[in-house]
Design brief:
Elements: H1 15-61, E1 72-79, E2 82-85, H2 86-92, E3 108-112, E4 119-123, E5 131-135, E6 139-148, E7 162-167, H3 171-178
């Protein structure tokens, strides 16, 4: 007499059950691997954001040392989709003096590589002077920062310190790309 009538002598009814256990375990392992990859990707973005804020703080504290010719370079920062606001950065670091009309927004200028699909400069619908840098896709990019003490005749005279942040492009290269070559300048302006 058999002990278990549902199992034949070779025990092959147990094979599909073992296969089911194997498939479930494989899915559990895949879930843990994908979850950990997603977690570490988020950590890279968080660390990069912290490095950017620390870099801006360092540049604002030493405007005579870090200048346009030798900006502070933050290498290979990771960014997820989102928006950077010049007003929020200026208020966070208290770069604007009390006489600044725009809450210090004019104390931080944001720039990005004009040809990059990842970056887009935007205006806020409510305040046309409000500068926003939109990041449209996940990207790894260098960031260049330099700050200066504004002169009495500059547009940023109300700022304690005026900072420029360049995403993915050196300040000197940005200026070169922003100015049209001599042959493109109309004769009336030349």
């Amino acid at each position: 007499m058999k002990k278990f009538p549902w199992v034949n002598e070779k025990g092959q009814e147990f094979e599909p059950f073992k296969m089911l256990i194997f498939v479930i375990m494989a899915f559990v392992m895949l879930f843990f691997i994908l979850s950990s990859l997603n977690y570490f990707e988020g950590q890279k973005v968080s660390i990069s954001r912290t490095q950017l804020l620390n870099g801006l703080k360092s540049a604002a504290e030493a405007p005579q040392v870090i200048n346009k010719e030798k900006p502070l370079r933050l290498r290979e920062l990771f960014f997820d989709t989102g928006v950077f606001s010049s007003r929020a950065l200026a208020e966070f670091f208290a770069l604007g003096g009390e006489e600044c009309e725009l809450g210090g927004e004019e104390c931080v200028n944001l720039y990005a590589r004009p040809t990059s699909p990842a970056f887009e400069m935007k205006q806020n619908e409510r305040d046309q002077n409000f500068k926003l840098l939109s990041i449209n896709q996940k990207i790894q990019s260098d960031v260049f920062i330099y700050c200066s003490i504004p002169t009495a005749d500059s547009a940023q005279q109300c700022c304690v310190v005026a900072c420029n942040i360049y995403f993915g492009i050196m300040p000197t290269e940005f200026e070169r790309l922003s100015v049209p070559p001599a042959e493109e300048i109309p004769e009336t302006l030349a």
